[in-house]
Write a structure and sequence with these properties.
Length: 122
């Protein structure tokens, strides 16, 4: 069982930055794929970024809408995954959710945090 707790959300003006953190419980954190989704007001939950570690190295993926602005990273010693968000836009306003799974990060991932609100004003 994995429990996820997000933090770092808040309100920021367009062009600003925020860093989200997701602290995970469990002793096998490094074996899990980790990622972020978001749910804008009135819309479906959507993929933002994911990071996995395999025999071939670190694999990272981003949604096209955040490429070049957001950076996902993980610190396995701290059981924490981060999402650095720069050059924020009003359309980035959403509840951001951390996800974990032993396989891939998808909308069907096994474990989810409670979400943290990010509001970007113009």
């Amino acid at each position: 069982q994995v429990q996820l707790v997000e933090s770092g959300g808040g309100s920021v003006q367009a062009g600003g930055s925020l860093r989200l953190s997701c602290a995970a419980s469990g002793r096998t954190f490094s074996s899990y794929a980790m990622g972020w989704f978001r749910q804008p007001p009135g819309k479906a939950r959507e993929f933002v970024a994911a990071i996995t570690i395999s025999w071939s190295g670190v694999n990272i993926g981003y949604a096209d809408s955040v490429k070049g602005r957001f950076t996902i990273s993980r610190d396995d010693a701290k059981n924490t995954v981060y999402l650095q968000m720069n050059s924020l836009k009003p359309e980035d306003t959403a509840v951001y959710y951390c996800a974990a799974d032993r396989r891939a990060i998808t909308i069907l991932s096994a474990y989810w945090g409670q979400g943290t609100q990010v509001t970007v004003s113009s």
